[in-house]
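[job 0412] stage=complex_fold ligand=zinc ion status=START
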Amino acid sequence: MGISKVAVLLSGGIDSTLVVDLVLQSHRHVTALFIDYGQQSVGAERKASQEIATHFGISWSSVTIGGISTAAGEIPGRNDLLIAAASVAYPRHSIAIGTHAGTGYSDCSPEHGAAWQGLLDVQYAGVVQLLAPLASLSKAEVVALALDRRIPLGHTYSCEAASVPCEACRSCADRRSLLDAA
Ligand SMILES: [Zn+2]
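[job 0412] stage=complex_fold status=DONE, emitting structure tokens
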């Protein structure tokens, strides 16, 4: 049996917002955690994350990890950093993350999730779970489910390059094409 307290890694994008919505269906004690690791779009992401937590009526906190410089696009090890920060900030909480299929990033793969579950099992003897409810869904399926669930899309922020949508990065392109098609 997993424990019922969950910390959701809430970046403020569509994926993590949908994760909050889904986790709240089955868990009562849900808190949002925002990680500032020096990402290019941190200001807009932080604002979106806070607004989404308010929308869902859940508590919100942030952790700042300094000294790392990142660009837009794949950041190898990024999800390791996020999960590790959540594990330290919220001990004995399950951790929910919005990884989905089709990115080609190794830290979004089922193998990566299983490896992290193994680490959490070493720490907590099997009672803390890594929850990745979107792991088997494509981005298009994530957006379709997000629309179906009526998540607050107007509060979400997707650009990974800047705090005003750059309209050029992969996240901006994904958001535009998927929402246009919806
Ligand atoms: Zn962008």
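The chain has one domain: 5-181.
[job 0412] exit 0
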